[in-house]
Amino acid sequence: MFESFKMLFRARPQEPWRSWPAFPEGQRVYAIGDIHGRADLLEAMLDKIAKDEAIRPAAETTIVFLGDLIDRGPDSARVVDLVIELARTCKVRAILGNHEEMLLASLESDQTLRRFLEHGGKATILSYFADQEAYNRLSISELRQDLRAIIPQDHLAFFRGLEDVVCMGQYVFVHAGIRPGVKLCEQNPHDLRWIREGFLDCDDDLGLIVVHGHTISQDVELRSNRAGVDTGAYLHGKLSALALEGCGRWFLEVTG
Questions:
Q1: I need a surface site. Which of 77, 80, 122, 211 has the fewest CB within 10 A?
Q2: In this predicted model, what pLDDT tens digit does every residue of 109-164 receive, in sequence order?
Q3: Is residue 21 part of a domain?
Q4: What is the domain extent for residue 86?
């Protein structure tokens, strides 16, 4: 019986993230998953981060948004306002998600605008529209023509200034993931914003720890080579953040 117990103990799997490298000395990061228009959850998360910061030693803190701030949820415009406002007082890095990519492309193409609307973009546009009845009367072409005037210029500038990747030490922050076996500088932007197959099922050493959103999981998903931080804000009402400092890693979450 004792031998069986020893065999069970040896077979217990180790938590794969324990082998992650240390985060750069003196720095702390909070990586926030896909928000998708849930301004209420973002406000609660920012309050939780502020309280978490207050109980920890001083560090150079960066808040990284992993993309998909907009679409599906009820208040995308407010989410963008909050991030722009936060960047005035905190160090913020924000990544271009596939939904922001579709919004920008919608300004140039009726076909892309139709696709954007089908993938949750209607909620984003309505968050900027004061009159839903006026929205309902517009054709696709008319709507596309009006978008540049409806969306504030500082919001358009914000969307156009979003980053593809953020690198900090041996960690890379992207929206969806990376293509294994391809150098970071040679990654296809489409993969950075859309990839699932070939990345999520890869357990190989990627050279960096990839922190990403895009694919919903019940909780923050930690693997030996990546962390998935999209816990379904619009679908399950749960927004999560992964925090990293030195060899420490912890999670913050808000629900509603």
A1: 122
A2: 999 999 999 999 999 999 999 788 889 999 999 999 999 899 999 999 999 999 99
A3: no
A4: 27-255
pTM attached to this predicted model: 0.93
Establish if 161 belongs to a structural domain.
yes
Instruction: Measure the CA–CA gap between 66 and 33, rounded to whole angstroms.
Output: 5
What would you measure as the largest C-alpha separation in the chain, in angstroms?
76
Cα dist. 254→24, 33, 35, 38, 63 in Å?
Answer: 27, 11, 11, 11, 16
Residue type, 42: L
Q: Is residue 141 part of a domain?
A: yes
CA dist., res. 149 & res. 156, Å (int):
10
Domain CATH number, residue 196: 3.60.21.10
Asked, for residue 138, whether it belongs to a domain, the answer is yes
H or E segment and range at residue 242:
strand 238-245
**Residue 205 CA: distances (Å) to CA of 13, 20, 24:** 18, 11, 20
pLDDT digits (tens, 9 = 90+) for 66-93: 999 999 999 999 999 999 999 999 999 9
How far apart CA 121 and CA 113 sit, in angstroms, is 8
Domain count, the chain: 1
Please state, as a whole number, how many other Cβ atoms lie within 10 Å of the Cβ of residue 91. 13
Q: How far apart are CA 177 and CA 67, in angstroms?
A: 12
DSSP string, 120-132: IIHHHHHHH-S-H
